TrEMBL record:
GO cellular component assignments: cytoplasm
Name of the featured protein: Adenylyl-sulfate kinase
CDD domains: APSK (cd02027)
Pfam entry (one): APS_kinase
Organism: Oldenlandia corymbosa var. corymbosa
Superkingdom of this protein's organism: Eukaryota
EC number: 2.7.1.25
The keyword Coiled coil is assigned to this record: no
Reaction it catalyzes: adenosine 5'-phosphosulfate + ATP = 3'-phosphoadenylyl sulfate + ADP + H(+)
Membrane spanning residue stretches: none
Record carries keyword GTP-binding: no
Keywords: Amino-acid biosynthesis, ATP-binding, Cysteine biosynthesis, Kinase, Nucleotide-binding, Transferase
Similarity-based family: Belongs to the APS kinase family.
Amino acid sequence: MAGLAQKSFVSLSLPEFDSGHCSPLSGKLGFLKVPAAFGIGRGFEVRSGFQAPIKAMESSRTPSYVVSNKLDNFHELDQPGCNPNPDDNVPVNSCKDTLKTSNVGNSTNILWHKCSVEKVDRQELLQQKGCVIWITGLSGSGKSTLACALCQGLHARGKLTYVLDGDNVRHGLNRDLSFKSEDRAENIRRIGEVAKLFADAGVICIACLISPYRKDRDACRDLLPEGAFIEVFMDVPLQICEARDPKGLYKLARAGKIKGFTGIDDPYEPPLNSEIVLQPNDGPGGSPKELAEIVISFLDKNGYLQA
Ligand SMILES: Nc1ncnc2c1ncn2[C@@H]1O[C@H](COP(=O)(O)OS(=O)(=O)O)[C@@H](OP(=O)(O)O)[C@H]1O
Ligand SMILES: Nc1ncnc2c1ncn2[C@@H]1O[C@H](COP(=O)(O)OP(=O)(O)O)[C@@H](O)[C@H]1O
């Protein structure tokens, strides 16, 4: 039996879902806010797939002075090419005769370039809304399995997805990171940034990693436009994860052969306000496919599966 705790704007009402953890629809994000977060209502006409590329070419003939690294935070600039970083607290360099550059972190004198083909155009092409589905939970809770089932379910509906699995990303981009808390934080930050790029590409990006710290997950949420970060909590008790132990890692951690293993001698902070809470308990009704359908229903009901 799978349990779905309804948070925010989850609006599934199937009787078989345990809603013991449900809070009433709080309107924290609110369904009506979702389209705005994706750029709808910013004056873009509804166009057919054939018209979209023409519009992009036409607008590319005129210079664009609209810059932002957040879709809901656009700035009109009065000086062509003068391009401050949209973050208010970022120092902006002189802009008298040259392009205005910014300093961000250790990167100095950088300029935000904007392209006339935007997220909204890509979404229209793909007929979906780019977003991040962030699956968090203990090792063995079923994150990777759900991610794969979701990917299959959405692919079958003609939706473009990409999975960023913590284990896999640690084989390449994040191979320099350990499981110390600061390295886990960096792992999550980098995956959050990459997921943001996928979402901006219009892709439904499925990130599945333990991501044990609330602060780090919330920081990833803050990278994205409101409504574009959907947190899915695999609320599976440690005893079940440990009984599954498909890689034998819990056994090694209990034997003291792996130090700092999440849930054993390293913390896991469960989400307080995730969009979806899944509570599969290895019984009937909690198969990966059924769990994936719960998430897909959420996406469908909240408008993510159309442009
Ligand atoms: N110390 C320790 N703690 C937890 N997990 C460990 C550890 N060492 C190795 N592993 C294996 O690494 C996988 C978790 O990687 P993540 O990138 O998802 O972790 S984290 O988000 O940075 O905490 C995790 O994979 P999953 O089982 O898929 O979660 C483990 O197989
Ligand atoms: N919904 C489920 N019901 C029962 N077993 C599951 C479910 N999802 C995954 N599993 C099993 O649990 C184990 C851990 O799954 P996995 O997806 O690797 O978890 P994680 O990525 O969180 O470590 C695997 O043996 C998998 O077959």
